[in-house]
User: Fold Regucalcin-like isoform X1 from Galleria mellonella.
Amino acid sequence: MLYRAITVLFLSTFYIKFVSCKFSTLYPEEKYLRDISYNVFAYTNLTFTHAESPVWDSETNKLYWVDVLNQDVHVLDYFTWRHTTKHISYGEVNVVVPVMNSSRLLVGVRAEVYLLDWQKHGDAALRLVAAIDQGKPDNVINEGKADAMGRFWAGTKGPQRGDKVAQDEAALYSLEQPWYTARVKLKPVTISNGLVWALNDSVMYYIDSETRKIEAFDFEVKTGHISNRRTILNIKEYGYNKAIPDGMTIDKDGLLWVALMFEGSVIRIDPESRTIIEKYKLPVSRTTSVTWAGPQLNHLIVTTSRRNISPDELSREPLSGAIFILHQTGTRGVPIYKFAFDNADCY
Ligand SMILES: *[C@@H]1O[C@H](CO)[C@@H](O)[C@H](O)[C@H]1NC(C)=O
Ligand SMILES: *[C@@H]1O[C@H](CO)[C@@H](O)[C@H](O)[C@H]1NC(C)=O
Ligand SMILES: CC(=O)N[C@H]1CO[C@H](CO)[C@@H](O)[C@@H]1O
Assistant:
């Protein structure tokens, strides 16, 4: 009930400065740690269990995200601050992507891709586009984005128990018009994450969280062919032993922003020099994903989680599951690509 209610959003401002030297005694290598200023989205006590897949629609000035375990898709209108929720009771909802020339949305529910009609109720709201990872009933779509041609890239994740995910059970697929047959692009993977394309669309950046690596492929935009897999950065080499790289986005300078799950931070990576150049530490550990939002695309949205959190950790990090907006990063994003599906409104 609580999650279905239309909730008005209050923006409360917490201004927090982190003292870099405090961290540099602990981790001498963290020279790139930056001060941050951020806001927290503070609802009427609405917290997200596992907020993920934040995405900004520049045409409508709306921010979307999902709350995976509660099976909700959220939308926030940036001008009116009106926040609404669409509940789906089909299983985990991991991904939301806007659809070109349509008010419908692509959603990843369990291991299926649907078009979601916000105005419709019950089963009629969902139209099946494709089922992937068939024969693996406990796999879910963990990450998904559209590329410059409007293809949908869907990465799956194997069965999860607590914070552990079964090894090598998943894959990365792409789906495109007119049949949306899922084509295997990469297999096996453990936890597909962090998809984004270079500004010139000739490189695809990718994360299989289990590898702890941010990787790159040569990308042929016309065909969707990927090749020449290589490592951009291994976060283990920076001493992040517990952290795994999760969601990723790119800024207007072509640099990558990656949420480090269990490390409570966002790093900015230069893919050319293959180094971390900035790091922003948040007051929670479970940072899941990032995207640029706002009419100027200069707000960095960071989603977080309280899934599997212990009561102890929650009392130390009460903002777990909140959504943060980072300001003053000195850069901004670029508009995302939408999913191409002709006549989506009539499907
Ligand atoms: C939120 O929760 C706190 C503590 O549980 C309570 O004091 C407060 O009244 C609640 N606020 C709203 C708007 O429900
Ligand atoms: C495209 O961008 C990538 C990443 O910035 C760069 O490595 C590559 O050389 C560029 N390719 C072309 C053809 O400009
Ligand atoms: C057929 C149609 O309406 N195409 C439009 C879809 O949206 C893009 C921009 O998002 C337009 O450029 C197309 O003309």
The longest strand covers residues 225-234. The chain has two helices and 29 strands. Residues 1-28 have pLDDT under 50 and may be disordered.
